[in-house]
Amino acid sequence: MIPQLTEKIRNKPTREITLFLVNFYLIGLAGTIIPFTRPLFLLIFPFAILLSLAVLMLFPDKSLSMKAWVMTAVIAASGFFVEVAGVATGKIFGSYTYGPTLGPKLFETPLMIGINWTLLVFATASVTERMKINVLFKISAAAAIMVIYDIFLEITADKLDMWYWEGNGVPVRNYVAWFAIALIMHALLKIAGVRITFRSDIPVIASQVAYFILLSVWFTFAE
């Protein structure tokens, strides 16, 4: 029964996937901007990351290979330990500390942050894999998309109690490090021969970016 249910879910058209994500993030947006419900929605924020990853991985154009699953674990672990080093030293992204929103921590770093790196790397790799460009440009474009995503994310990160920067705003070093680390992760995917595409890649990325943009507008003009 479970394999049949999984197959039924995987056969959902892209339009239904997009509609689900739009509704999910609109509800999340409403719950976050209302002061009364905000604590609850921040509490379930890690669930939103897990759900987004599940929606991405459930809809590959081809079945995921063992190498793809291995690289999923490699990127999650690498992303987590890079963040551990970043928090401990302040020399990678800049000086910052994590708040409670992303859930349980190990070494002052949320375990969920590795999952988020995996989500972003696989989604952007999928988007650029469809492009008719040289592999080096694909890697660079995927890393650039991740930096653009981070720019919008950073606008609301402290207001959502995800993390806090020391000093005046987000350091440029953060974006440089994001690009460099994303570049390495995408290069590792190509070296490993993982060239997977997902039907839900653009809906996942676009819905999250739209969520952070709308939330930043609300925080700027309504609060």
Count of distinct strands: 4
Rounded mean pLDDT score: 89
In percent terms, what proportion of residues is strand? under 5%
Main β-sheet, spatial strand arrangement: 1-4
Distance between the termini: 49 Å
Largest sheet: 2 strands, antiparallel
Helix-strand pattern: HHHHHEEEHHEHH
Based on CA atoms alone, the radius of gyration comes out at 17 Å
Kindly name the structural category. Answer: mainly alpha
Helix content: 55-70%
Based on Cα principal axes, name the global outline: globular
Spans with pLDDT under 50 lasting ≥5 residues? 1-7
Short description:
By secondary structure, the protein is mostly helical. It has helices at residues 2-10, 14-33, 38-43, 45-57, 66-89, 112-129, 135-157, 172-191, 201-221, and strands spanning 96-98, 105-106, 109-110, 163-165.
Task: Report what the structure shows.
This protein has 223 residues and is mainly alpha-helical. It has one domain. Helix content is 69%, strand content 4%. It contains nine helices and four strands, in the order H-H-H-H-H-E-E-E-H-H-E-H-H. The strands form two sheets. A two-stranded antiparallel ribbon has the order 1-4. A hairpin with a 2-residue loop joins strand 2 and strand 3 (109-110). Helix 6 (112-129) packs across helix 7 (135-157), helix 6 packs across helix 9 and helix 7 (135-157) packs parallel to helix 9. The protein is globular and about 45 Å long. The relative contact order is 0.16.
